[in-house]
Amino acid sequence: MRRILLLAAGLLFLGACEAEETVKEDDYETFKDKVNEESFTGFVYLGEKWEMEQAEYIPMIAEVFQETGAVLYYGDLNSMENVTREKFSGDRIDPDIYLPVNRLAYIKEGEVVSEWGAREGRDPEEVEEQIRHFIDKYSSGNYDHKKE
């Protein structure tokens, strides 16, 4: 009986962890389609670790989202399936496709409201504070709905 209770508790814990997932990662095509849906609302970030200076910000961004409970749709071009450099380069220059490369963006009903670039502010504490401010501002809905 004790084993059954421990197993049940473990399954409940795992289920709670999955239910609280704040950083959601998809393959390239799914990410691209989701971000470009007219009805999409949320935070997005597409990391391109080919630029090594950006790689240090990715764990920080994920940690802040986990702490705040906000949801981030994230993509990492180096680990995404079904993307080649040529495919990505073609999509990136297509004016009908939005890809938030190395930019944390907030999208409301298919429209980009604002972007924050990881290159702004080099001090890690300052960067973390900027990310928190960005999340708080757009999670609360207290902003001008025109693109900033």
From TrEMBL:
The organism of origin for this protein: Alkalicoccus saliphilus
Protein name: Thioredoxin
UniProt keyword terms in alphabetical order: Signal
Signal sequence residues: 1-19
